[in-house]
Amino acid sequence: MDKKIINHCNKNDNNCMESANLQDIRINQESTLNCKAAAALLTLIQFITSTIQVLDISLNLIFKIHLFIHYEILISMFTLWTLSMIWLIFTVLMFAGIIFNNDILILSFILFNIIFTFISFGLLILLIVEKSYIYSIFYLLFIFIVVLLTINYSWSFFNKLCNENII
After folding, report:
1. How many alpha carbons lie under 13 Å from residue 122 in its C-beta half-sphere?
2. Is the model's pTM score more than 0.85?
3. Mind telling me which residue stretches traverse the membrane in this protein (predicted)?
4. Predicted confidence (pLDDT) per residue in 82-131, tens digit
5. 88 near 47, Cβ under 8 Å?
6. Residue 158 sits in which domain range?
7. N or C: which end of the chain has fewer CB within 10 A?
8. C-beta separation of 127 from 154 below 8 A
9. Is 120 domain-assigned?
10. How far, in Å, are 21, 81, 159, 164 from residue 51 at the CA level?
């Protein structure tokens, strides 16, 4: 009789443990979805910003190429265009990483964003020191903040994927 009661209690404990584990899994999935949504939204903002930047630089190169007397200006414009294209490509890769939960794509995007953070911070300091136009400073400050937030949420999303053993 005692064995039946003990077995019944053990079964109830196992059921309680399983339901607690299921609740933990649901909470983890909800927090992963929140990080995934935030990372996707910030990546979308980066995509829009980088697309506008590529179009702006491309139009400047097309319409004003005859005005560039000094090669230094032309080289700097091509450098900015190349950097913007790389940023655009990595943003598209991040979308693929978020959609398919691919760790390599997410990590490469995070690494590029860390490098891009240093570049944008340096450009921001340069614009402030050179007393450039205020809209240029605010634009670069906006890019800097978006990149930092994207790194934060992308890293959180990646960690949650690792904790859930999805990747």
Report:
1. 6
2. no
3. 38-63, 75-100, 106-129, 136-155
4. 777 887 888 888 777 777 777 777 777 778 878 877 877 777 777 777 77
5. yes
6. 34-163
7. N
8. no
9. yes
10. 44, 11, 29, 34
